[in-house]
Amino acid sequence: MLERDQAAIAAALVAGPAHLPPDLFAGEWAHVLRAMTVHANTISHARLVALENTFPRTRAWLGETEFNRLSRDFVERGGAKGRAPAQIGAGFPDFLTRESGALAADMARVEWAWLTAYHAADAPALTLVDLAGQDDASLLALPVRLHPAVMTVALTSDAAPILDPDLLAGTAALLITRPEAEVRLLPTTLATLATLVVAQKITPLGNLIERLAEHQDGDGAAVVPLIAAGAFERVRR
Asked: What is the DSSP letter of 204?
């Protein structure tokens, strides 16, 4: 019974009070409608504020008026429906792809990835110091896995220098890491993104080096800056 009532209230908040069963609340319908309207407005406002806080750079680039119009449209079309407060912005980048364009969508996608990395589980990052003193065979056999805070974004626009002036125009992809307390935003390549898929599960370091060499014109040493950036978790053997 409680689950049915909760589902009915949720449906009414999204689709309107006409979806309320007539026996759900006692009292005059006008009072029920007024209370529902106040409650729905409060929830809608909270969702809009959450979007503002989640995508500050996208908001600054679009301008307050345009961002507010788009975020309100997103909420009113049910973009936040069924999402926990911390997940309200998950569908916003795709919404911007359709309603605003690639640049705004890329900016929002990177901001969402940054926030996801910030809140990701803690785990010790593999460092170059961990590799010191190991022979070649041990290094190649070393098990590695992507750090849980690692996020990647393939860009479809030239959003990188707008997000960070230190990033060059033409940057094709971004790597987001958080080896300790600091979230890092780093330029990378589409080839590197394709290679990192291998490390979603535990794999020998040698396998990763081999894949990087295949995608990077024989440059397996490209794994070194990835380790230095905190891209991998230190896996216990």
From this structure: E
pLDDT band at 11 (very low <50, low <70, confident <90, very high): low
d(C-alpha 113, C-alpha 115), whole Å: 5
- Of the candidates 41, 177, 160, the one whose C-alpha atom is nearest the C-alpha of residue 106 is 160
- Structural domain of residue 47, as residue ranges? 2-100
Q: Report pTM.
A: 0.81
Give the residue from 199, 186, 171 showing the smallest Cα distance to 228: 186
Rounded CA-CA distance 231/151 in Å is: 9
Measured distance CA(230)–CA(197) in Å, rounded: 16
161/219 same-domain check: yes
Distance between CA 23 and CA 17 in Å, rounded? 13
* Assigned token pair, 199: 């490390």
Please report which helix (H) or strand (E) contains residue 232, including its range.
strand 232-234
pLDDT digits (tens, 9 = 90+) for 145-167: 999 999 999 999 999 999 999 99
Encode pLDDT of 176-205 as tens digits.
999 888 899 999 999 999 999 999 999 999
Measured CA to CA, the distance from residue 30 to residue 149 in angstroms comes to 49
Domain membership flag for residue 114? no
